Amino acid sequence: MKIGSSADLAPDWEGSPESGVTQAQAGEKLSEVASRLGVSTEALQEANPQIGDPDKLIPGSEIRIPAAEVSGSFRSEDAQSTGKASSSYMERNFEASMMKSMLSNSSALNFMPPNSPSPTGSGGIAQMPPVAPGVEGYSDKENEDVKAALHKVYNAAEKLGISHDDLVSMLHTLAGNRPVTPEKMTSALRLFFMAKDLSPADRKLVDEAFKKSHADPDYVNALKKLVADPKFTNASTQTKKDWLDKFGNLAQNPQLKGLSDTQRSIVLGALASDPPPSADKISSTIDVINAGKDLAPGDRKLYEDGLKAAEGDPAYAANLKKLIADPKFTHLKPAEKTAVLSQTKNYPDARAVANIDRLLQKGWFQAESLDNKQRSLKMVGKLSTYDAGDRGIIDNTLDKFLDPSSHRKIEWKQYPKNSTIFGEADGNTLELNRDKIPADNNKLPEDYNTKEMTLGTVPHEVNHNLNGDKVSETFKYFQAEYRAWFVSFKAEHGRAPTNQEAMEQNVGWQLNPKSWYWPNALKAAMKNPKEAEQFYRFLESVTGQTVNAKNWRDVVKSDPATWPDKGQSPAPVPPGNVDNH
Ligand SMILES: [Zn+2]
Fold it and tell me: Do residue 212 and residue 148 come from a single domain?
């Protein structure tokens, strides 16, 4: 028995919430767009696979700004998913301030490359500390560029509410550690923003630690992570000093010598995780790094990039180390290993790695072709890390495919071209439309198809399956579709729908002659008085109106503003399994 998907519902979700978009200007090259935005050309290229020739952009064509780069390499989404409320709040706050005051106007934090003209205008220069000009060994041009960069930092810091003393100290350190790259600028601003609410004595400690860091972005990002940790915030000044000293002495630590930049960044991230920083953390992290040494070079890079992106999260590191030692991984073909490690890097979260490891144990996954493995992997990565919804429903849904005892499986099916169907439940098999999810090693794009597939179709169809729903000309079937929609709504939004949302996104559509649900609802409602009565009672519970055979169509179309609750109360909870347990 097949149950149709909610694909035709045309939900009101729109656009991509994460990524910005810019337009190519006449004659602009991709590298020029990158420097205009203050992001790396590589990242921009990666986010825009549609661009054939990076040196010949079509004027006015849209260019996606990679999410991680929109905000200057900050990882807002991931910061939230690690559950550190205060730190992620600060991150968002920082981003909001930065984005508003910097990146949206011409005084953006776009570092000008050395060969580009200096930015015009110089408001606020009066209070600039006496640093940039006339440093020996640099050309006038280089000194001008540093001055321009510091000027931007100065303006940004002021808008972020960083104190004048901290600002002066920050600028001195930046000026003394050339070149002043965008990475140095943003990491410094982040650190001082995170520290700005500490006591003056504590802020002085942070100033000193920053000085010792030589403004090295990896080092400063790790310091920022430590400073943002509630354990640090709540520690005594003496403890803070001890911890920051441990960081300060790292530069001389022989264990860090000989590490690549990425490896060093991993160690720094681990050391800053879950304070106090300890020597054990350095050793165990180097163990994790070494565990990847037998991987193919490209895979090893993915492995290390994932560890770096996870900012030293010990749970992520432990899970990833375990995964690459698992025979189910080691026996994969080379391209399949790359697919797995691409997604553990794209979703740098301990939960995603654990679930991907569970996926590898499933026979149906092992039997999939490479392209379908890629689809399954990225879907599991996305669902494992989506924190804006109902984690209980999402985890239950994942368990239905990943639990060792589960016999349910996913099958990526070829539907007719341009089919609007996302998927169907067919017994224990969830058939999904392979054309809706790209087969590659990128992260899932944040678009309509992705959202509909992962948070709409999958929980929806699983719910049908768990409730044994069957298409029939009854109120019961209408209710089954309402329930499956209700569950996927909660999975996506983390709350029950309101009466208005229920009417607009499901009930009204099921009772709309244009929907394919209609023949069932129509026949049930019109031909069988007993069934019809149940429809009327249900519509009454949603709208607060008295409903009968004469007025039900008008009630369905009525303005929620005229309902007693204005449509704002929670919609009725359907009977049956409503959390995919
Ligand atoms: Zn359905």
Answer: yes
